[in-house]
């Protein structure tokens, strides 16, 4: 059984720009950077890369690969840009609003806060085009338990709707 998230990894356009954004704008700790040796062939072909890590407050990490020897990454044309994202939790509404201020002061477009009933969130993109969310928990006592109890029923209703509207079965 998984104990906690260790890291998620994404591709970045430029390691230096990514380090500056995640440290200076978001305030994360730059924890590691490991460049590949010249002639590195991890999967049979030569690749130049650096793998960089930023530490979150709970000891988990977000990591990036700068891969200048590979063609540029392409967005998935079939997936809206708000679907794939990373959500970072902050401890308070004050911290969320301070994060929004810091982002806007750095010239980053920010959406929100948006109230989701159990949390409030702001949304923005990092310099690599990765959608990020900053969120604060706001659930009422018992709300997460209620959501857990209803999860199976919600999934069954979704599967029925998807079958009815799109002919797709689970």
Can you tell me about this structure?
The protein has 170 residues and is α/β, with parallel strands linked by helices. The protein folds into three domains: 1-71, Roll (2,3-Dihydroxybiphenyl 1,2-Dioxygenase, domain 1), CATH 3.10.180; 80-138, 2,3-Dihydroxybiphenyl 1,2-Dioxygenase, domain 1 (Roll), CATH 3.10.180.10; 143-170, no CATH class. The protein has three helices and eight strands. It starts with 6 loop residues before the first strand and ends with a helix.
**Distance between the amino and carboxyl termini:** 25 Å
Under CATH, the topology of the largest domain is which?
2,3-Dihydroxybiphenyl 1,2-Dioxygenase, domain 1
- Share of helix among residues? 25-40%
Counted up, domains total 3
Number of strands: 8
- Which regions are unreliable across 5 or more consecutive residues at pLDDT < 50? none
Overall average pLDDT? 94
- Give the name of the CATH superfamily of the largest domain: 2,3-Dihydroxybiphenyl 1,2-Dioxygenase, domain 1
User: What is the annotated CATH architecture of the largest domain?
Assistant: Roll
Structural class by helix and strand composition = alpha/beta
Element-by-element helix/strand order? EHEEEEHEEEH
| Sequence of strands across the biggest β-sheet | 1-4-3-2
The count of helical stretches stands at 3
Gyration radius, to the nearest Å?
A: 19 Å
Please outline the major beta sheet.
Answer: 4 strands, mixed
In percent, how much strand structure appears in the residues? 25-35%
Overall outline: globular
């Amino acid at each position: 059984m998984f104990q906690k998230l260790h890291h998620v990894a994404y591709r970045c356009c430029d390691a230096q720009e990514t380090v500056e954004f995640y440290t200076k704008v978001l305030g994360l700790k730059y924890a590691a950077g490991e460049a590949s040796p010249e002639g590195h062939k991890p999967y049979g072909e030569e690749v130049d890369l650096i793998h960089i890590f930023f530490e979150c407050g709970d000891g988990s990490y977000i990591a990036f690969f700068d891969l200048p020897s590979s063609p540029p990454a392409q967005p998935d044309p079939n997936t809206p840009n708000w679907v794939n994202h990373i959500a970072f939790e902050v401890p308070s509404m004050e911290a969320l609003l301070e994060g929004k201020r810091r982002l806007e002061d750095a010239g980053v477009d920010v959406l929100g806060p948006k109230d989701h009933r159990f949390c409030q969130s702001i949304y923005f993109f990092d310099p690599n085009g990765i959608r990020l969310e900053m969120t604060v928990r706001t659930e009422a006592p018992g709300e997460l338990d209620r959501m857990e109890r209803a999860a199976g029923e919600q999934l069954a209703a979704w599967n029925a709707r998807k079958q009815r509207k799109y002919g797709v079965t689970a």
